[in-house]
From TrEMBL:
Coiled coil: none annotated. This is UPF0303 protein SSDG_06807. Belongs to the UPF0303 family. It comes from the Bacteria. Pfam families: HbpS-like.
C-alpha cells in the first residue's frame, strides 16, 4: 500500500465520530452525486493502492459499486454487513461499534443480531440530507476498520467542500 498518500488515522472517541456525522450532512443526494462521490473514492483508492470495494446506496437502491484490484467477494459481504448496521441504527457502523466498546462490551455480544448479517466495524457511513435525515449509505471495505471509516469521511469532506 502506498502510505505516502495516506493520512494518519487517529483514534476517535464516540463524541468525535458523532461530530463527524453531524458535520457531514448534505443539502441533497442525487444519482449524479452518488457517481461523483463514488468516483472520488475510486480515485483516492487508486492513489493509495488500496484494495477496497466501494458501495453507495440510496434507500434500497445501489447507485454505485466498484471493486478495486486486491479486493474480493469477501469485501462485498463485509459491505452488506456494515451497511445493514447503518440502515438499522441510522449511524455509522464505526460509531455503533465504538458505543459498544465504550460500554465495555462488543456489538456481537450485546446486539443479539446475527453476526453473519450485521457487522459494527468501520467503513459504512450514513448519507444524511438536511430536512430528510438518513437517505442511504456509503461503504468502503478492504482496509482495517479505522482506515475504511477515515477514507469515507475524507471523501465526504472533499465532496461537501467542492
Amino acid at each position: 500500500m502506498n502510505t505516502d498518500t495516506m493520512k494518519p488515522v487517529p483514534h476517535l472517541t464516540v463524541d468525535e465520530i458523532v461530530q463527524q456525522e453531524r458535520r457531514l450532512t448534505l443539502r441533497r443526494f442525487t444519482h449524479s452525486d452518488a457517481w461523483a462521490l463514488g468516483s472520488m473514492l475510486v480515485e483516492m483508492a487508486h492513489l493509495r493502492e488500496a484494495p477496497v470495494a466501494i458501495d453507495i446506496r440510496r434507500g434500497a437502491q445501489q447507485l454505485f459499486h466498484a471493486a478495486l484490484p486486491g479486493s474480493s467477494a469477501d469485501n462485498d459481504a463485509w459491505i452488506d454487513r456494515k451497511r445493514r448496521v447503518v440502515e438499522r441504527y441510522g449511524e455509522s457502523s464505526y460509531l455503533v461499534g465504538a458505543r459498544h466498546r465504550a460500554k465495555g462490551t462488543t456489538f456481537e455480544e450485546s446486539s443479539r443480531l446475527d453476526p453473519d448479517l450485521y457487522a459494527a466495524h468501520g467503513g459504512s457511513f450514513p448519507i444524511t440530507v438536511v430536512g430528510a435525515g438518513v437517505v442511504g449509505s456509503v461503504t468502503v471495505s478492504g482496509l482495517p476498520q479505522a482506515e475504511d471509516h477515515a477514507m469515507v469521511v475524507e471523501a465526504l469532506e472533499r465532496f461537501i467542500a467542492r
